[in-house]
Amino acid sequence: MAVRLTGAGVSPGAGHGPAYILTASVPEPPEDSAHAGDADAEKERALAALRQVADELEARAARLDRPEDPASGGPGREGADILRAQALMATDPGLTVGVEALVDEGVAAPRAVFSAFAKYRDALAGAGGYLAERVADLDDVRDRAIAVLTGHPLPGVPAEPAPPAEPGGAPRPYVLVARDLAPADTALLSRDVVAAFVTEGGGPTSHTAILARAMGVPAVVGCAGATAITPGATVLVDGSSGEVRTDVSAEDLARAASLDQARRAARARAGESRGTRDGHPVPLLANIGGPQDLDAALRNGAEGVGLYRTEFLFLGRRHAPAAEEQERAYRAALVAFPGRPVVVRALDAGADKPLAFLPPPGDEPNPALGERGLRLLRRFGDVLDAQLGALARAAASETAELQVMAPMVATAEEARWFAQACRARGLRRAGVMVEVPAAALRAASLAAEVDFLSIGTNDLAQYAFAADRELGTLGDLQDPWQPALLDLVRLAAAGAAEAARPCGVCGEAAADPALACVLVGLGVTSLSMAAAALPAVRAGLGEHTLEQCREAAEAALAATGPASARAAARACLPALDRLGL
């Protein structure tokens, strides 16, 4: 029976082949698991498993650094960087301390690993956007360690193409279908082996999406029901439209191949541009979590850093990172972008991102509305002062344009306080994030106190719709195409313009080529996103004029829901379909 499914197209192009369904998983260790009494031996067993996982991931990364066939279409350095980041997760000091503490309480090694990872998992899931999509990577490290400890086999990805459809024919790449995919499962594949990826989970910045784009392989994520496809059935995947079909004819396949070729040629031409087709400049910047993300930003043509998430330096540690460690991490970004903007977000902790080295805030019935971001930094001024000092020293000998912004700002007084703190440390450009409706409504007042605004669409949606971003059942209220959210973006951009200040967007909403055009039409002056999304956004903007972007924005604002807003905007942006975006 023919199947037609729809998800989110995250890597453009069309691919087809027999379906390989990956459904196995490592079972959760029982909650009441206890060890035999030798805590030291059990701790060593757990840590040895984590070291083994880290070593295996490093070995895979090394293979990607030295591919046997550079033309095979593998993910290369991008995949190697992702695997090395996973290896660091496996040996994170905070995690190992947590595992050891649980074993000391009598918990068996597999359950100790599972529970220690849970704290980090919850923090990432609650952060939303790019950070939430690192959960699959963390789960993979956890499951690999538990599999080592329990002897349970990990689900495998076939390393060879599928058998030919006809005797004597050429081997066929397969379509890999899964609930979700981990980098270690996919990073060693190539487009000679896999024709497309389809997952039921994941999003535009998941590593499935990033690696698929690096490989040039079509991918669709968030495709409900995909794992119910019959194994071996011929599947046609459109990574542009998000459509997944089975039982397709030879004519369907030929038509898809022809359209895909035309789209690739058009994107290549459009990707050379900067800003809109009529010359309106729109700097396209990268969101990063640390130095490990800089190579990808440079390879994808980032014009600077629009969001440096510094919380990765602080989370899961018993003590704050030393000033020298912070300085090195910040300088790496400044060195990578000489003469370009590098926007660093001051530590965004609290609520779903607690810090072990700070006392808990007390009883907070709703932590998301409590002491987080700038509110926490004002209470622990020494932490902010140390961070600003490290930033000032890192910038002293570099030419990059360092800009520092505060998270979770609601009032002009808070904006003024942060700007004064930055200037006291010699930091010339201070800004604030627009993440709560109050900041958007009074954007002109806030902008008058600082040098720039930057909109975080994930939190702005959470607070505008009173919809906890940790609740999947409220995901439709987190849709960045919600017209009310676009209203707030327009208010923030207009307020910044009134104060003659720039206003960017650093939420992952900017990674959608259609929504990027709408944001520009709403008055946003720069866009920042995961590095892998930059080429597609550049191509989409480069094929439309500023007036078309404004028409698309008005059409989206006139809609009554996210689906109709998206459809109305795309109708004003005709080149997107031609580009396959």
Note down, in words, how this protein is organized.
With 581 residues, the protein is α/β, with parallel strands linked by helices. Among the domains are: 97 residues, Glucose Oxidase, domain 1, CATH 3.50.30.10; 106 residues, Orthogonal Bundle (Enzyme I, Chain A, domain 2); 129 residues, Phosphoenolpyruvate-binding domains (TIM Barrel), CATH 3.20.20. Helix content is 45%, strand content 13%. It has 23 helices and 16 strands. Strands 1-8-7-3-4-5-6-2 form an eight-stranded mixed β-sheet. Strands 9-10-11-12-13-14-15-16 form an eight-stranded parallel barrel, surrounded by five helices. Helix 10 links the parallel strand 9 and strand 10. The longest helix is centred in the first third of the chain and has 27 residues. Pfam families: PEP-utilisers_N (PF05524), PEP-utilizers (PF00391), PEP-utilizers_C (PF02896). GO terms for molecular function: kinase activity; metal ion binding; phosphoenolpyruvate-protein phosphotransferase activity.
